[in-house]
Design a protein that fits this description.
This protein is mainly alpha-helical. The protein has one domain (3-488). Helices cover 73% and strands 3% of the residues. The protein has a two-stranded antiparallel ribbon with strand order 1-2. Helix 2 runs antiparallel to helix 4 and helix 13 packs parallel to helix 19. It is globular, with a radius of gyration of 21 Å.
């Protein structure tokens, strides 16, 4: 397959699974084989584009003209590939995990579960490879609709209520985003994502400031920027693999990805500074980081504590985009991968605690580190990484964010990062202490291999990416390439 065909193939391969899975509703082995095959093929297709992108190439994919000045167009650059690699690799691991989790919980509606998951990943890779605002918007809204059946999977009143809240937030934000996109198209018809921004110098400072606010409001809901975050803690009623999808693979990551695209490829760092929007975005991100940390401390349910942790951690990405230096942007983009592996390890661990120990709270985990060593070690690695402990993935992101903040003269942001790390210690380390340093009560065993293997891999990744951030898929180099292109403000590569 030629290089230009691979972006579309990577998007469509999981849609093929969507078409096939309902045909095998009563044959779970075939259904699961289709899911694993689609996930492996998607990852292989995405990874096959890595050498070209590392060599500095931007891969132009399929284009579907619609009307004059509007088209659906796929393009693979360093930033998009980083996101797609993170999402597709974690989908494969989540698919394996789901096999064990759904069987352990005797979950119903498994076919619709796998169908929705596959649709989400097609939309996510479409977002990653979108070359323009229209393509981004179409995939963004498909992701919204595909995720809804997963949020309401349990079909309980609580799940249905969470689903309604999710739709109100995300569809409402979609309308705001559509207004912003139409307005941007009227200013720059047919413009595509350009490092340095295609709106730079195309309208008055006041107009660009208002337009930027609309874009951030539209993407800020999925990114869970406060006060637009209310749907995310409520959605924790969903099965644990779905929670992992929301946090680490697709939905909130898609929102954060949109924020960085808007900052770096629609407006540009210089335009944000000229309008003063960079300071406003920094303040919003910093406030979200700190308030979410305080809220996490007050949550007794483990998944809800993880949810508020995600709200704070994703605002690191927003903060890095607002600072706009090469180091800050590198740290923000690397956090896509680092946070993804760390947080999904923690959610996988929470799911194992639910199925085997029947514990969903942050208390009562005494001695489980001895009885479920793989589970709690993966949890500990994720927690330490999010706190910014050296030699773990979170440290790489935070270090670069801090360096970038200092280079830009925003010393106070370093204080925000340090304070956030201390909060992470406060709300995660008591859990780790209880698990490893208190005596166990009762008999508990590790979950089966379909659950233990993915959480072990993701926990190990949290360590490996901290020691060797370019190990495997070269996440750090991809982040650096993307950051440099934004700051350099180059045009659309031909």
């Amino acid at each position: 397959m030629d290089l230009a065909s691979r972006p579309l193939a990577a998007v469509l391969v999981s849609l093929l699974a969507v078409a096939l899975l309902p045909l095998f509703d009563r044959r779970p082995a075939v259904r699961e084989t289709i899911t694993f095959t689609a996930a492996a093929l998607k990852l292989a297709l995405v990874a096959s584009m890595l050498p070209a992108v590392l060599a500095g190439q931007v891969i132009e994919g399929a284009t579907l003209p619609l009307v004059a000045g509007l088209s659906l167009h796929l393009r693979v650059d360093a930033f998009g590939l980083l996101f797609a690699l993170t999402a597709s690799s974690l989908w494969l691991l989540t698919s394996i995990y789901s096999l064990g989790y759904l069987r352990a919980t005797a979950s119903t509606h498994q076919t619709s579960y796998y169908v929705s998951f596959a649709a989400c990943l097609s939309a996510t890779v479409g977002i990653a490879f979108a070359a323009n605002l229209l393509t981004f918007f179409v995939c963004y809204e498909v992701l919204t609709l595909a995720t809804y059946p997963l949020v309401v999977h349990a079909r309980t009143p609580e799940a249905l209520g969470a689903g309604r809240r999710y739709l109100v937030y995300t569809l409402g934000a979609g309308q705001v985003l559509l207004v912003a996109i139409v307005w941007a198209q009227s200013i720059a018809p047919g413009a595509e994502f350009t490092p340095g921004g295609f709106l730079a110098g195309r309208a008055s400072t006041a107009t660009l400031g208002i337009l930027f606010a609309l874009f951030i409001a539209g993407c800020g809901v999925k990114a869970a920027i406060m006060p637009l975050h209310g749907w995310l803690p409520a959605a924790m009623v969903a099965p644990t693999p779905v929670s992992a999808l929301l946090h680490a693979v697709a939905v909130v990551k898609a929102g954060a990805f949109g924020v960085v695209r808007i900052v770096g490829y629609v407006f540009g760092v210089d335009t944000l500074r000229a309008t003063g929007a960079d300071i406003a975005l920094m303040l919003i991100a910093a406030a979200t980081i700190l308030v979410a940390s305080v809220r996490a401390l007050g949550e007794d349910n483990l998944k809800r504590r993880l949810a508020y942790s995600t709200i704070g951690q994703l605002s690191y990405i927003v903060l890095g985009a607002a600072v706009g230096s090469v180091a800050a942007l590198t740290g923000a983009m690397f956090h896509f991968a680092g946070h993804g592996f760390m947080k999904i390890a923690m959610f996988f661990s929470a799911g194992a605690l639910h199925t085997e120990a029947h514990r969903d709270g942050v208390r009562g985990l005494d001695g489980l580190g001895r009885q479920m060593p793989m589970t709690m070690t993966a949890f500990a690695l994720g927690a330490c990484g999010l706190a910014g402990v050296p030699l773990l993935a979170g440290f790489i992101a935070k270090w670069n964010l801090g360096v970038g903040a200092l280079e830009a003269g925003h010393v106070v942001l370093v204080g925000v990062l340090v304070t956030s790390g201390l909060f992470n210690v406060a709300y995660f380390f008591p859990i780790i202490y209880d698990a490893f340093f208190k005596a166990p009560s009762g008999q508990v065993r590790e979950a089966g291999w379909p659950m233990v293997f993915p959480l072990g891999v993701t926990g190990a990744a949290a360590l490996c990416l901290g020691v060797a951030p370019d190990l495997g898929f070269h996440f750090f180099t991809l982040a650096r390439l993307a950051a440099e292109s934004i700051v350099a403000g180059g045009g659309v590569p031909q």
